[in-house]
Amino acid sequence: MKKKGRCDNCGRLVSDKEILFEIRIDIYAKGGPIEITKEDLQKDHIEEMKKLIKAMENMDEQELTDEVWESYRFDLCQDCRKEFHAKLKLKESGRTPRVFRHRIGNS
Description:
Blueprint: E1 3-6, E2 13-15, E3 21-28, H1 38-42, H2 45-57, H3 61-66, E4 69-76, H4 78-92
């Protein structure tokens, strides 16, 4: 039996006769309303930008990027896809289950 791939969650080899599901996850920094106060308008904005740039110089480029946007792709077997799907449906219904049971992405 030829193998199609491996489930990134449970690690099981998936045969070419089975469906291997792909899940993509994008994580974005969620913006919100900006409140500008009188104090904000009185700040030295050039100095604030210099401080921000200085702080960013000590950070890793990937760390800076991850603070704004991350993207992941995983392959799932039928069983893990069903479990993931069920947990998403629970979340949609207003409950708050843990979406990832265990090792997704760590195999």
